[in-house]
Predict the 3D structure of the following.
Amino acid sequence: MDKEAVKYRARKRWGFLGLPWTFTVYNIGDDLLTVDSGFFKTEENDCYMYKIQDAKLTRSLTQRMFGIGTVTCYTGDTTDRQLVLKNIRQSTEIKDFIVKASEQARLRRRTVNMQNIGAEMDDLDSIIDNS
């Protein structure tokens, strides 16, 4: 992923004290979410933002005490139906960014699923013009 395209870079942390002593890094951009993990055997998993359908934030008592949270992204990706960004700082901000960026990516690619059947085309045009 291009350094300039990365909006957030988060590191998986231990649940205890929120220390970043893991080998998992999450790179989140406008078009792509990348999970890099491993030390001896490394794995890089990418998911385009337009494939992310929903995101959920969970924070246990311990996570709230140490200022971290877990963001679960539900995707239409074939390799991973769920991408879990575990124990990350700025979890609320990152979840909100993912939801907005995924919606904007779907609008740009014109892959929007319409749930409101009664939506007017003028409403859709105003959403696209604002992006």
User: Anything to note?
Assistant: The mean pLDDT is 83. The beta strands are 6-11, 25-29, 32-37, 43-48, 52-58, 69-75, 82-88. The radius of gyration is 16 Å.
